Amino acid sequence: MSPDEKKLTAETAPPKASSRVGTNLVLEGKLTGHEDLEISGQVNGSIDLALHDLVIQKSGRVKAEFIKVKNLFIHGQLDGQVKAERIVISETAVFSGDITATRLSVQSGAKFKGTVKISKDYQP
Predict the structure, then answer these.
(1) Looking at residue 110, what DSSP letter applies?
(2) What is the rounded distance in angstroms from the CA atom of residue 92 to the CA atom of residue 48?
(3) How many CB atoms lie under 10 A from the CB of residue 20?
(4) Which long-range contacts (CB under 8 A, 24 or more apart) does 8-11 make?
(5) Whole-angstrom Cα distance, residue 59 to residue 34?
(6) DSSP secondary-structure letter at 24?
(7) pLDDT given at position 124
(8) Contact assessment for residue 62 and residue 79, using Cβ atoms and an 8 Å cutoff
(9) Which residue from 19, 15, 14, 13 is spatially nearest to 35, judged by alpha carbons?
(10) What is the pLDDT of residues 56-88, one digit of tens each?
(11) Which residues neighbour 47 within 8 Å (Cβ) at sequence distance 6 or greater?
């Protein structure tokens, strides 16, 4: 494939689908889907996005019975049990709960209370 063909393919590739729970929204219940999710509001319940990413923004507040995602990026508050391939807990995050992950990064300044189990295999 020539460089021009590669460029054309990259430009015409469909955008990655994603959804957002805005700052003024409160969602209660079981959330499942097949695209990435960004939470700036409040979610109470469970989240199953096993093959997709979840971003909890600084204003996001999540209280979850269970979360299963491919990649989790926490900047806000999360209380619950999480299973993911990769988890990044930023310096602004507050996390309380249990983690099972292949890779975990906790940045300086993050607040973390819970248990961690590092698992070599993430199974969606």
Answers:
(1) -
(2) 24
(3) 14
(4) none
(5) 24
(6) T
(7) 73
(8) yes
(9) 19
(10) 999 999 999 999 999 999 999 999 999 999 999
(11) 31, 32, 37, 54, 62, 64, 66, 67, 68, 69
Closest-CA residue to 63 (of 88, 28, 33): 28
| Three-class SS state of 4 | helix
For the record, the structure tokens of 51 come out as 């093959």
Q: Name the nearest CA neighbour of 34 among 14, 57, 50, 11.
A: 50
Model-level pTM?
0.85
Tokens of residue 38, six digits? 């960004």
Average pLDDT of the chain to the nearest whole number: 89
Tell me the one-letter amino acid at 122.
Y
CA–CA dist 103, 23 (Å, integer): 29
